[in-house]
Design a protein that fits this description.
Elements: H1 2-11, H2 16-44, H3 53-71, H4 78-103, H5 109-116, H6 130-133, E1 142-146, E2 160-164, E3 179-183, H7 192-195, H8 200-209, E4 216-219, E5 234-235, E6 238-239, H9 240-256, E7 265-270, H10 272-283, E8 290-294, H11 305-313, H12 317-323, H13 325-332, E9 339-346, H14 378-391, E10 395-402, H15 407-424
Parallel strand pairs: 3-4, 3-7, 7-8, 8-9, 9-10
Antiparallel strand pairs: 1-2, 2-4, 5-6
Helix pairs in contact: 1-3, 1-4, 2-3, 3-4, 10-13, 13-14
Organism: Nocardia panacis
Keywords: Membrane, Transmembrane, Transmembrane helix
Protein name: Esterase family protein
Length: 433
């Protein structure tokens, strides 16, 4: 609202030439900016949910405000120039706010500020402080930033994080705890599950009920930078798959004493990370036996198939087959002891998405099913993958919950699936509350 008011003041009445010539030009510039943004999002396949119309209005306002500031600078008085200059960042801020409301990336202003300033995560401590905590009574787990060597992949990744539950600190040496690899969405940082997903209260509550026991959580970097969409495959954008399968498990096992048994390893992913979760599991059943695919796609994608082969694999069609889950499952043959959960979403209404989660229980595995209401297309992908998995011996189920493609949905899906994952990787179920 402030941006629109500032823009109207910046436009003003001025001269007849300004009103008949330059104002229409500014409107045209705004419309072109909105159309270009819409085309880019659609061409790149960046979103599962349709963007709210207000987003394109804000993009148009930003382009229009910039045009007004540039084209109307000479004819404006000093105070109108000041308003013109202010209208641009206001419109840009409005665009960012609507974009954030759409994807739920930053749930609070504090989370956004912490990410902007690279502030510490909740319960974060340094690796050097872990030795001093050994054998002490640690009531809540700790998160440590780590620089995982990339000798197995040469993948240029950012700082990653490892959550260690209270049970890890008990005794003279670390117990052989299970591990869960946590992967975020297409635009991501390794800390997104903690900052945007805000899952640590869920994990802490589980650990408190389980006498301090919980899986080691590894918040990995699957992209190398915020906007590098690797889809967790090897290709021109980096050998992300090698990093996640060679570097990470070896480091967590050696540095933190985690179990190396694939039965004690799981992958949980959201959006692009959901696609990664099933892809990593079916391509590397010798490493992972459990996955949770939260609103993932049918397979690694960066546009249509032709665009994906060009963008992700440098034109090598054989690489598509090597990382396409349906192809991999068909070629692999029967799997043993592999189980997965698909948590998909259906908006309550195409224009008014909401959130209504349904809990997951271990007994539901293998049952399958969905709500049969309006969806964005992800449910169809889950059904195809689950059908193919069942035919190859993978025990899987689909849970469909109502909501938008946001971090809030991902957090709710994590909360409902985490007890099942913990049981799958070998931890005893906590007593009922």
């Amino acid at each position: 609202m402030l941006a629109l008011v500032a823009l109207l003041v910046a436009v003003g009445w001025r001269t007849r030439r300004w009103r008949l010539l330059w104002v229409p030009v500014c409107v045209l510039v705004g419309g072109v900016a909105a159309l270009a943004a819409w085309f880019y999002v659609d061409d790149q396949g960046l979103a599962s949910d349709p963007a709210p119309p207000l987003l394109w209005v804000c993009v148009a306002a930003t382009g229009g405000a910039l045009a007004v500031a540039v084209l109307g600078w000479r004819s404006a008085r000093w105070w109108r120039r000041g308003v013109s200059a202010v209208a641009v960042p206001l419109a840009l801020l409005g665009t960012g706010i609507v974009l954030n409301q759409w994807v739920g990336y930053y749930p609070t202003a504090q989370a956004a500020w912490n990410a902007l300033t690279a502030g510490p995560l909740p319960q974060q401590t340094d690796l050097s402080a872990l030795a001093g905590l050994r054998g002490t009574e640690v009531k809540v787990g700790r998160i440590v930033p780590v620089r995982i060597p990339d000798a197995g992949s040469h993948f240029p990744h950012r700082t990653e994080y490892v959550y260690l539950p209270p049970a890890w600190f008990a005794g003279a040496t670390p117990p052989r705890l299970p591990s869960v690899m946590m992967i975020g969405g297409e635009f991501n940082t390794p800390a997104d599950w903690v900052r945007s997903g805000q899952i640590m209260p869920i994990v802490d509550k589980y650990a408190a009920a389980a006498n301090g026991q919980a899986p080691i959580l590894v918040f990995v970097d699957s992209s190398g930078s915020f906007n590098n969409d690797t889809e967790c495959v090897n290709g021109p954008r980096g050998d992300a798959a090698d990093h996640l399968t060679r570097d990470v498990p070896a480091y967590v096992t050696s540095r933190f004493g985690a179990s190396s048994d694939p039965a004690n390893w799981a992958v949980i992913g959201w959006s692009m990370g959901g696609t990664c979760a099933i892809d990593l599991t079916v391509t590397h059943p010798e490493l992972f036996h459990t996955f949770v695919d939260i609103a993932g796609d049918l397979g690694p994608a960066s546009g249509d198939k032709e665009q994906t082969i060009r963008r992700l694999y440098g034109g090598d069609a054989a690489q598509w087959d090597a990382f396409d889950p349906l192809t991999v499952i068909a070629r692999h043959g029967p799997y043993t002891e592999i189980a997965g959960l698909f948590d998909d979403l259906t908006p309550l209404h195409p224009q008014r998405p909401g959130l209504n989660t349904r809990p997951v229980d271990e007994g539901a595995v293998g049952m399958g099913g969905h709500d049969g209401v309006y969806d964005t297309g992800e449910v169809g992908a889950a059904e195809k993958l689950c059908d193919a998995g069942r035919a190859a011996g993978i025990d899987c189920t689909i849970h469909t919950t109502k909501g938008g493609h946001t971090w809030q949905f991902a957090s709710a899906a994590f909360a409902s699936s985490f007890p099942w994952v913990a049981a799958r990787v070998g931890l005893p179920a906590p007593p009922p509350a």
